């Protein structure tokens, strides 16, 4: 079935069905959160920005977290050799991101002028790199375990 959201979904029918389940679960959690905010707003004074940003974050983190933990991203990884190969691909991808981030940072913001700017840039890059590696590694490990059990 093709809808306006089809461009966001994977081509694989199984993955597409699982992602739609995750999105549906996230929507239900989001709905419950917003209902709770309606009642809690009588007792606490929440700003609209806080409620909107936390609702977006809850939805995105839930859907992305479920996708990572589900083990459906790396369907072809079922042997130790393919696991190591994919781990190397992840490391190359992150290294490429680091290089491109540094290059773009230098082009758009210039060379940092003082120590605090260097620390800010390095901290941001390190944080993003750790999150990227962790999410890819957890997804790879989950996929490997799931695919190994299927064999």
Written account of the structure:
It is a single chain. The protein is mainly α and 151 residues long. The protein folds into two domains: 10-70; 80-150. Helices cover 77% and strands 0% of the residues. It has helices at residues 13-40, 48-70, 80-109, 115-150. Helix 2 (48-70) crosses helix 4 (115-150). The longest helix has 36 residues, at 115-150. It is flat and about 55 Å long. The two termini are 30 Å apart. The mean pLDDT is 92.
- Distance from N terminus to C terminus (CA atoms, Å) equals 30 Å
The percentage of residues in β strands lies in under 5%
Secondary-structure-derived class: mainly alpha
Strand-and-helix sequence, N→C?
Answer: HHHH
Give the mean pLDDT.
92
Major sheet attributes? none
Computed CA radius of gyration, to the nearest angstrom: 20 Å
Which ranges are low-confidence, i.e. pLDDT below 50, for 5 or more consecutive residues? none
Shape: flat
Q: DSSP helix count?
A: 4
- The number of domains: 2
Report the strand count. Answer: 0
Keywords:
mainly alpha, 151 residues, single chain
Summarize the structure.
It comes from Saliterribacillus persicus. This protein is mainly α and 151 residues long. It has 2 domains: 61 residues; 71 residues.
What's the helix and strand layout?
Layout: H1 13-40, H2 48-70, H3 80-109, H4 115-150
Helix pairs in contact: 1-2, 2-4, 3-4
Transmembrane segments: 20-40, 46-69, 90-112, 118-138
Organism: Saliterribacillus persicus
Keywords: Membrane, Transmembrane, Transmembrane helix
């Amino acid at each position: 079935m093709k809808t306006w959201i089809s461009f966001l979904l994977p081509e694989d029918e199984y993955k597409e069905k699982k992602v739609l389940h995750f999105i549906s679960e996230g929507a239900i959690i989001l709905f419950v959160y917003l209902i709770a905010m309606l009642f809690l707003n009588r007792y606490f004074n929440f700003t609209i920005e806080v409620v909107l940003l936390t609702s977006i974050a809850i939805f995105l983190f839930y859907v992305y977290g479920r996708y990572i933990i589900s083990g459906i991203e790396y369907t072809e990884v079922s042997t130790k050799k393919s696991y190591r190969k994919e781990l190397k691909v992840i490391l190359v991808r992150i290294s490429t991101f680091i290089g491109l981030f540094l290059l773009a940072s230098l082009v758009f913001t210039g060379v940092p002028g003082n120590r605090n700017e260097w620390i800010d840039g390095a901290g941001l890059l390190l944080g993003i790199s750790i999150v990227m590696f962790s999410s890819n590694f957890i997804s790879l490990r989950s996929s490997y375990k799931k695919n190994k059990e299927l064999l």
